[in-house]
Automatic annotation (TrEMBL):
The active site is at E158. Transmembrane segments: none annotated. Coiled coil: none annotated. The lineage of its organism: Bacteria, Bacillati, Bacillota, Bacilli, Bacillales. It comes from Paenibacillus odorifer. This is Peptidase A4 family protein.
């Protein structure tokens, strides 16, 4: 399974539901912030691992934080996967730097767990990726090389790529993102930073309005 840069869906720009938000995508829903090259060197956020409901066919989802991937093909990220495959619900943690595939973090993840991710630039090309499960009391950290443009930061629910195609989004419960920070500060999110997920001309996931402080929101699967 591969998490993918945002595949912006311009064909849905006139959709009434998408008009309140800044973008729509085939594989992302959530919030992004953008800036000039080198604008973002640290991102963090917390989220609750959603429950996955059974489906007849295999379905997939990921919740994550990351830098880049919005209007570029670079991306450094960490998050959780929640999928229903061959009749079994699966939950796990991971990190990824495109173009490589995700690396599974070998620590337990369960629905309802409270996660916190942090990605920080340490030096010119060295980055720290940290993921904590606050419910299970574990912390994972890795240092990796990354040279992306640092022009966007994201808090996202994604339908990942499986076997070369964007997967159908799993039937996940509402996913709450909290304590979002970019460069150590509240991102002051507005609706224009938000985006909906549209698959096969159907809106499948929509973020809520941001909190008054502009640092938390939820993503709801609606189809």
């Amino acid at each position: 399974m591969v998490n993918h840069p945002c595949l912006t869906d311009k064909s849905n720009a006139s959709n009434r539901q998408s008009s309140a938000f800044g973008w729509s995508s085939k594989n992302w829903s959530g919030y992004t912030v953008t800036g000039r090259k080198g604008a973002f060197n640290r991102i963090s956020g917390e989220w609750t691992v959603p429950y996955v409901k059974p489906t007849h066919k295999s379905t997939y989802s990921s919740a994550w934080i990351g830098i880049d991937g919005f209007k570029n093909s670079n991306l450094i990220q960490t998050g959780t996967g929640h999928e229903f495959v061959n009749g079994i619900a699966r939950y796990y943690a991971w990190w990824e730097i495109l173009p490589d595939v995700e690396t599974v973090i070998p620590f337990p993840v369960y629905p309802g767990d409270h996660m916190k991710g942090t990605i920080t630039k340490i030096s010119h090309t060295k980055w720290s990726i940290t993921l904590r499960n606050l419910s299970r009391n574990w912390t994972f950290r890795t240092l990796q090389r990354y040279t992306g443009p640092q022009t966007s930061g994201e808090w996202i629910m994604e339908a990942p790529e499986v076997d070369g195609s964007i997967a159908k989004l799993a039937r996940v419960g509402t996913t709450c993102f909290n304590c979002c920070r970019i460069n150590g500060k509240r991102p002051r999110l507005t609706l224009s930073n938000g985006g909906i997920m549209v698959q096969n001309n159907t809106t499948v996931a929509v973020p809520s309005s941001p909190s008054p402080r502009g640092d938390s929101f939820s993503v709801k699967r609606i189809y």
